[in-house]
């Protein structure tokens, strides 16, 4: 009786290919990272999707307001300065530019907004810090954009636009346009706000309004609603330091409200 020839998978070409494929699949599966789902962030939070919803806001502790577009927060276990993305407000104490019209008003309004609730920041997809080491972020209070409020009230201009960090640019430009059309704040001085900053000479030439703003600041008293709205475009409620019954014609507890 003839002896049967013994064969194995390794001696069969098809079997060898199957074994190689099996080893390759096992190797690939072993190399896959855990929790690497599309759009998820890493432990360090370095990647924030461009369409990140409100739940991506990062709660932070406010330390103090520096000026109209800069604050100090406690984040990542240490105190850090935050420069607001996509906006620019007049200076309050610049070494070269000094104090600019509406700089103090922007700072005070920024402080008021931040004192009104829970503060959070949102990063965009571009760089997270500037050359001074400041964080670059959108800032929110109770889920509302501080940047958009400052633009809406004429206390900031859209500026420092560096793609790809342009997530809220369209909204901000619309808010700026509404303030500009109504002549609020910085837009009450012709040609004061420019694409590159603020023209102090134009403010000096404008005379009366800028002089009144610099002298009275946010406190008042304001002679009329034109003066008050140049600082507080939406008017002020009773109890606010700038409120006056004389300017509350309909006695509804709101002075110089926009009609």
TrEMBL record:
Keyword DNA-binding: no
CDD domains: SNc
GO MF annotation terms: endonuclease activity; hydrolase activity; nucleic acid binding
Organism domain of life: Bacteria
SUPFAM superfamilies: Staphylococcal nuclease
TNase-like domain sequence ranges: 56-189
Keywords: Endonuclease, Hydrolase, Nuclease
rRNA-binding found in the keyword field: no
Protein name: Micrococcal nuclease
UniProt organism field: Bhargavaea ginsengi
Species lineage: Bacteria, Bacillati, Bacillota, Bacilli, Bacillales
């Amino acid at each position: 009786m003839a002896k049967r020839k013994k064969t194995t998978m390794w001696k069969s070409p098809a079997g060898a290919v199957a074994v190689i494929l099996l080893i390759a699949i096992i190797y690939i599966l072993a190399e896959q990272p855990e929790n690497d789902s599309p759009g998820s962030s890493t432990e360090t939070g370095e990647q924030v999707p461009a369409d990140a919803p409100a739940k991506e806001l990062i709660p932070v502790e406010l330390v103090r307001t520096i000026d109209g577009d800069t604050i100090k927060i406690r984040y990542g276990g240490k105190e850090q300065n935050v420069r607001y993305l996509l906006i620019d407000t007049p200076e309050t104490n610049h070494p070269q530019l000094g104090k600019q019209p509406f700089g103090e008003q922007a700072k005070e309004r920024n402080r008021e907004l931040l004192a009104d609730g829970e503060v959070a920041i949102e990063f965009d997809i571009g760089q997270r810090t500037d050359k001074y080491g400041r964080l670059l972020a959108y800032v929110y209070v109770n889920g509302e954009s501080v940047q958009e409020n400052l633009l809406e009230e004429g206390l900031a201009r859209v500026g420092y636009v560096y793609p790809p960090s342009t997530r809220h640019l369209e909204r901000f430009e619309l808010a700026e346009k509404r303030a500009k059309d109504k002549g609020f704040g910085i837009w009450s001085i012709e040609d004061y706000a420019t694409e590159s900053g603020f023209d102090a000479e134009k403010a000096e030439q404008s005379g009366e309004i800028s002089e009144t703003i610099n002298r009275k600041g946010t406190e008042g008293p304001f002679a009329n609603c034109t003066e008050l709205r140049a600082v507080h475009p939406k008017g002020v409620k009773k109890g606010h330091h700038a409120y006056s019954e004389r300017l509350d014609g309909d006695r509804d507890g709101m002075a110089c409200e926009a009609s």
